Amino acid sequence: MNLNALTESPFNLHISFHKLIAHFEEIAATQTGPKADYARSVLKEVEPFPELKNGISNKNQIINNTEIIGHLLESLFPEILTHNEIKAVSIPYQDILFNQTKRFEGILKSAGETFNVAFRDYNEHQFYVMACCIILDAEYGTHLNFSKPLYYDIPTADGVLKHYRILYNADFLELTPTDKAVKLTQEDIDLLMDNFNNIDIWKEKFPVGSWDLRGFGLMSLFDATVESAVSSLKGTLLGREEENINLSEDIEAIFRSIYRIPDLHVGFLSFDPDENTFSLAPFNEQLKSFLLPEEIEAELCSDTLCTHSLTTVVNEKIYFAISDINKYLAENPTSVMARRFKEQGINSVILAPVIKNGKMLGVIELVSGHKGELNSINANQLDVVMPFITDTIDRKFTDLQNQVQAIIQDEYTSIHPSVYWKFKKEVDKYLQFKSHHKQYNLKEVTFTNVYPLYGQVDIKGSSDTRNNSLQTDLKNQLCAAIALTEKLCVSSGIESLDAVSQRLRSYEIELDSAIKADTEQQLQQYLEQQVHPIFKQALVLEIENCPAITKYFEDADKMGDFHLQRRKYETTVAIINERMASMLDKWQVETQSAYPHYYERFKTDGVEHNLYIGEKISPNKPFEMEHVYNLRLWQIQVLCEMELEHHFNREILPYPLEVTSLILAFSSPLSIRFRMDEKRFDVDGTYNARFEIVKKRIDKACIKGTTDRITGIGKLTIVYSNHDEELEYLTYLRFLQSKGMLKEDLEILDVEDLQGISGLKAIRITILNDSSLPSKKCYTYKELLQEIDPEEMKYQKANEPNTPVE
């Protein structure tokens, strides 16, 4: 029993049974029979103890009268319910308990002699304000409703913390003011309502001992362990954004309360759907796993779980329980999972998948050293807590994903979705080491055995057009400057204008021949330093040519007429690039669904693109060479479509520029590595570098023995190095000819020897411009096989000589 009132309270406490005694007095006076006889016997027993009616204020008075108080309260504490109800006499919101039921006594006894009952999450300030609110509601008719649920947290004998919700019956209590009570106005009540935290104001309006609280209350407890544990779990999970200290221990304590298993432990496995692997929690180093040894960073799901558990947890996404590890291991002697549990002294286990929006995030592991404690039945108790766990883990993964994205953007730049998983894996490893306070340097990302595809749509004659537009603009500016200079020679009297005029005419003659690399820079420098100061001086002097000078400066502005041809050229290139790039991007989105592959493009004077496809880029999907063939066929069709798009829209361009298309065939797989310094992928290794060398040199290559370029307007050119590549691409072209996309004028050309490279050949063919590709999709390699006998293709390849690049 405790009789420890709070040190300060507006109440003078008087434990009294006057209302109950008055009730018995009424029955004895007005009724007959057993009830009246019982009432008279109770009144006779309590008659020698007037303090029971007048009020008890001393702890010893309760201790000395325990038996009599028990008889007096017998009707409220039926003997038949004493082992079922958790009940006692108490003063509401005061730490006073006595006359407990047998069940309540047993609970307190199991908690140990050193345990003292105390309200959870309440302090003396809150209790003082709560007492004041009781007075305000009872005497002034307010509805402040400050009280919140009260709990006792009481441990069992084996250390499991249980949570009991407290309910009060205040029918036997009476509230009266003393001479210290303060009469409150509405202004006082309004002041209190706005000053919860100011205890001085509350004590001013409700001085200590200003009200008598006389009587007793009935306290009833019910076991709310699960509900309270769920609430605590939610608060624990939501309240630990940065702080991870003891988080694992807190969660384990909560789960032990729910399951009432003192040796229950909690683990967590993170699930990676891209690689189908399990790993330790990347967001909290304290969350260990009992399935995955600490020395293993990640492990295939099939290596961690047995077939049955893997199917249940990962595929079906439902709970999996083993109530007896020894029995399970005897029935499944090869189970790595059961053996790992057994080695750690675990004898029963529940595995619970964490699912958010149909996506699996990981697996919660509940384990116990006793068999039967965890089983498929009590696994369903997880239903009440999994929503909170799922939301928290999802939030943690989202935060982690944001960190990963930030590091990738910082260290690797923007990454194509097809290879994002591998960068994520590297950053996850970095963050995992960081969470364990270990050093780890981000590594370069490499993909081996991938097949490259390269293509470009180049703006033909872009350099000449750029020079011509520049030349035209500079000539127009020189003509205007010369005309103004000659007029000023006559009207202004400014010295040295003759020399300036002659110098400008020499620049004009120079522009009539081929423009040099530094011509524009020299001319602009001369105009800025020698000519424009003279024109500005003439404006200050208000010479008669001022309107012409003003017009000159307007035209010399970047948006003026002296930049007209350059703007038209730049606009034309921008339109072509944007149109070609957007088409390529759009078609790329569609073809990624056939088989994920890496894609990048660049805008120069035209649009280039690189594709890399292989098993290493998408390890979770079965890879066949058919995927490579399909992508090569797709590439041809997309370049044809881009050519057609330009053909039908070139008339609306500011400059009537043409484009040419080129594909580089390369049948051997190679390796690519992400260059950290350049923030881009590049081929890896000396041998593979030949591919990059060929890419850089073929766009300006000529047909061997001529000065004609291998590319042509309205034509598609495919450069290759051996006979197998020739046969493969001829097959694609014949198929597309049959679909009315290409003409019959196919040419096979020898490419001139390039620096360090010889033996290249090219196929060139005209794209039909009286039709367009079907809008739904490209033709696929499967459709090609339906029309061309694959056995014939194999025979041709097997019997034709192979001519590699020298």
UniProtKB/TrEMBL annotation:
Domain of life: Bacteria
Protein name stated in the entry: GAF domain-containing protein
Organism of origin: Mucilaginibacter gilvus
